[in-house]
Amino acid sequence: MWTGTLAVALIFVSSIEARASSSAATSSRSGVRVVIIGAGAAGLSAAQRLNELGFRHVTILEAQNRTGGRVFSQDRENNAFVELGAEQVHGSGQPFYDFAHGKGLLVPMPTGLDDFRTDTGKQLETSEKWSFDNAVTTFSQITRSMSDKSTLTSDMLRHVSVETNRGSQFRRRHHLSELNSTLPEAVSLAYDYSIRLEIIETSCPAPMKLLSHRYYTDFKQHGDNFLVHPNTSYTSLLREMTMTFPPSWIELNRAVSRISLTTPGQSSSPIMVEAADGTMWPADHVIVTVSLGVLKSCPSLFDPPLPMKKREAISKSGFGNVAKLFLTFPLPVWKDLFPNGSRLLGLLWTNNSRGIPYNPPKVNQTMFWYRDAVHFAPVPTAPNTLLLWVTGVGADLVDGLSDEQVLDDSWALLKNFTANSTVPRPVKLTRETWSANPFARGTYSYFSLESSKANFTPADLAEPEWNYETTSNGGILGHRLLFAGEATEPDFFSTVHGAVLSGQREANRIELCANECKERYWKPAVGWLNDIKL
């Protein structure tokens, strides 16, 4: 009886101690000031995780007038919408898939008949179609094989571009040993189209010079790609998944101009974050989630400057651009043009080959952006609307043109490729000019050849900076400046779920610091206004 009473007492005391310990941990975390730069997928997921971990002094500074970053669903009348940014869910076994799948909101990628036409409106003959399909299959097989590191030497992995290797293999398979060998037109058309299609995935504008094999060897994906159900927008799904924290944490239209490391003893805050209007926020930790494109374009954002290694990693990492042009017509046009139910119109350019290996020209003012257009396709979430994808240098060129010019060019393009002069002119263009947006500077990252040569990976972009004091044995307890975003995710770069995972990663890193440091390095959260310049 006594033994049992003692056991109950010990359990009771242990329970009190556990609650006290938990309360102390929560208390110490609630006083930690975290500022997140950017309210895209990475920033939102970081805030969600911090909230779960008990952090209460969190501010998200978003430069634009909306959340979501490069996830951007634009609403239209009658519950219609278009996805100006991300639209696919890449593979299973990752948080975004699990959340969307659990709600029954994923659908397979569309399959069906594809219609290919040349720039004169000509369809491929039966024999040409066989050669075309065979060449597309060969291209895909070679590309898929590049994810197997065992087929690549260390020199190829670091110093040879994807396209240099693939182009050589493709020519050998088609018994074209010399670069000046004449290609069957259908084969040339297939290769050119496949490259443009690949750039939708990679965003790399010049795979011959810029794309590393590590894009394929390092990226991890389990299963197929999916689309979000057409009744649900990508933006709403991202918000539902991540925005479980207080909405008051988010401040829109807050472009950050400077992130400064303060001098010990001269400020009650290890870091100060300054907005373009002069408003300042003190912080113990800052999570930078802006795109790699923004990091490339804003080297003066950090004071003091980032270490040379981090600056080189940013400079050498790849960040590209893809354009999505949504063309709304005054009446339905797709079924009239393609009564057989084609799911897309692939654009094939004749007498304008860029060779095998593929080697596009440098950007110049005489180029036509639509040479890099890939295909037209109907938009299931918006009536009377076609989506035209544009990749490579053409994506940057079209971002710089007026809406009227793009409407006229797209109209001419559709009439030429369908050989139908009665197609009505589109009445509305909806797009986001990602490369011209100062808060994006492009669409998503890719593993560049320059990074491979310098042995940089996304992990180098993720490396935190501005360490807190070390322990007596030289260990680092934590960091003031942290980095998240799809470009920092070693296994899932260029994806939304990669961004989500990166935000969670950095929140967990802050928790680890809080557990180790307790309140040793932080001043109380009261008295913030002493540091704020209005």
Quick structural overview:
GO terms for molecular function: polyamine oxidase activity. By secondary structure, this protein is an alpha/beta fold. The protein is 37% helix and 17% strand.
Could you walk me through the main structural features you see in this protein, from its secondary elements to its overall organization?
This is Peroxisomal N(1)-acetyl-spermine/spermidine oxidase. Residues 1-18 form the signal peptide. Residues 42-510 form the Amine oxidase domain. It comes from Hypsibius exemplaris (Freshwater tardigrade). One of its GO terms (molecular function) is polyamine oxidase activity. It is a single chain. The chain is of the alpha/beta class and 534 residues long. It has 2 domains: 32-67 and 243-316 and 446-528, 3-Layer(bba) Sandwich (FAD/NAD(P)-binding domain), CATH 3.50.50.60; 110-223 and 321-436, Polyamine Oxidase, Chain A, domain 2 (Alpha-Beta Complex). The strands form 6 sheets. A 6-stranded mixed sheet has the order 9-2-1-13-23-22, covered by helices on one side. Strands 7-17-18-19-16-20 form a 6-stranded mixed sheet. It has a 4-stranded mixed sheet with strand order 12-11-10-14, with no helix packed on it. Strand 18 and strand 19 form a beta hairpin. The termini are far apart. Mean pLDDT is 89; it is low at 1-21 and 519-534.
Quick tags:
534 residues, alpha/beta, FAD/NAD(P)-binding domain, Polyamine Oxidase, Chain A, domain 2, six-stranded mixed beta sheet, 23 strands, disordered N terminus, disordered C terminus
